TrEMBL record:
Cofactor(s) in the UniProt record: Mg(2+); S-adenosyl-L-methionine; [4Fe-4S] cluster
Leading EC class: lyase
BP term (GO), one: tRNA queuosine(34) biosynthetic process
Species of provenance: Thermosulfurimonas dismutans
Protein name (Swiss-Prot/TrEMBL): 7-carboxy-7-deazaguanine synthase
Length: 218
């Protein structure tokens, strides 16, 4: 039985669907996606602009979300956005899903504290490079809440981004306590070029492509 009833908790939902996880530690696995509405950042290459404004979402009671998950036929849940940590109800949602035995993943933009995220949740946290226009909003104290099963993601749009990300990886020793991925910004950085730079520098990071886009999945 769930630990929390959540009957009165409502969340602004952009969309609910089942697809393959396109990125992150569980890339390629089927998952139930909970995309929450609203974001506090405005990255210039954002690929989910439809989820950026909270008013575009549909308010939904948590039991309805849980019921959709139960009917999904999968055991993994990816909570994403927008920025999911903007909504207070997301913490109860994560607890409820964990209580049901789900394997829960959280995608977050790196600007809000991870302190209250349950330790059982696998966290995929961005560090926004210069091309995003959002680098100054990164909350570096979040690094203390990451483990080896979590991931820091850099979206790389150009060589300046690559140099910035390389400096962060090596200067902060990120690869020693969590997984680090470099993902080419769709349509801006070629995967081949990014792969060659990683190999040239023997950088201890994972090249990660957006599998869902390649396969034309939601």
């Amino acid at each position: 039985m769930p630990l929390i009833s959540g009957d009165k908790i409502r969340l602004k939902i952009s969309e609910l669907f089942v697809s393959l996880q396109g990125e992150g530690p569980a890339a390629g696995y089927p998952a139930f996606f909970v995309r929450l509405s609203g974001c506090n950042l405005s990255c210039c290459w954002c690929d989910t602009p439809h989820a950026r404004q909270p008013e575009t979402g549909q308010e939904m009671e948590m039991p309805k979300i849980i019921n959709r998950f139960r009917k999904s036929g999968v055991s993994q849940v990816l909570i994403t956005g927008g920025e999911p940590l903007l909504q207070e109800g997301v913490y109860a949602l994560m607890e409820e899903l964990l209580a049901l035995g789900a394997q829960v993943f959280l995608e977050t933009n790196g600007s809000l504290s991870l302190k209250r995220v349950p330790s059982e949740v696998t966290k995929v946290m961005d560090l926004k490079p210069p091309s995003s226009g959002m680098s100054k909003y990164m909350l570096y104290e979040n690094l203390r809440y990451l483990s080896h099963r979590d991931q820091i993601k850099f979206v790389i749009a150009d060589e300046e981004d690559y140099r910035w990300a390389k400096e962060k990886v090596l200067g902060l020793g990120l690869n020693y306590f969590t997984e680090v991925s470099f993902s080419p910004a769709w349509g801006l950085m070629s995967p081949e070029k990014l792969a060659k730079m990683i190999l040239r520098d023997r950088l201890p990071v994972r090249l990660q492509l957006q599998l869902h886009k390649i396969l034309k999945l939601p």
